[in-house]
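Work through this protein:
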Amino acid sequence: MNEQGEYWRDLRTVLAVAQAGSLSGAARQLGISHATVFRHINHIEERLEAKLFERNRDGYVLTTAGEALTRRIEQFDQDLVVLERQILGQELQPRGLVRITTTDTLLINFLSPIFADLQQAYPDIELEIGCSNELVNLNKREAEIAIRPSKISPDNMVGRKLADIRVGIYGRVQDHQYLLDGAKEIDNLDKLREINWIGPDESLAHLRIYKWLQNNNLYGQVKTRYNSLLAVADAVRNGGGIAILPCFMAAIDPTLLALKAPLEGFDNELWLLTHPALRKVGRIRACMDFLGTEIHKKKHLLEGNLKHAEDHR
């Protein structure tokens, strides 16, 4: 490989590490070894004479130089996607059925407009959207594409991390504005111990929201329980109490008030995945590229960037 080819290879590796937050996650995305990822990062840091990542207990974190470089790579990557779409449209319009699986919470609060735009962009592609909180088996071809919250990328799939998913404590504006007392967020959870909470029932005991309420001795304040986060959010909108909700559910809803968001230690990740055998299939690649680009544009909603979200209300 010539020097220019090595440079583009190393840039792709930087982006993969930034998205995955670890060398092993980047290795899975790129289909190369952990050691090779490490070597690529060292190579480009030597070439640029700049440190791009800091290593801490949470993984690899971008330095200021790394953030600047990653922004440029992402923009270039998006420009390439647009160009590829234009070429695909000129040469061969993708067509056929694409089955996508995601969760009901993501679909109703975040993904539905993006799917509508996808169908308009590719009118010859038929979309079949399945909602499930279980991980659909892409190996058995139960779906071609999965958009899932997960802390890790399954080893038998390929794709990329699109964003972090964060949560916060929310109430109804007209009921709970007084709790802030002019502040941006509450500074003491004790203020919330005498208020009715709404939360998940035991069927959702695997959720970190459920465990957080238990660990902070707040589950006893949960007076109404649901087996769906959609129902929990609706109960908050109707004045039933306060609840922990994903930030994206509340970010564009003017009836919901962020009492404390995002909550520390709740980070999950949103992954866009497909089966390795399908990633070069025209209609799958078109959908993966489109979804990755459009979700990235709205990742501030997923990550609890309140100022950016308010600008979009």
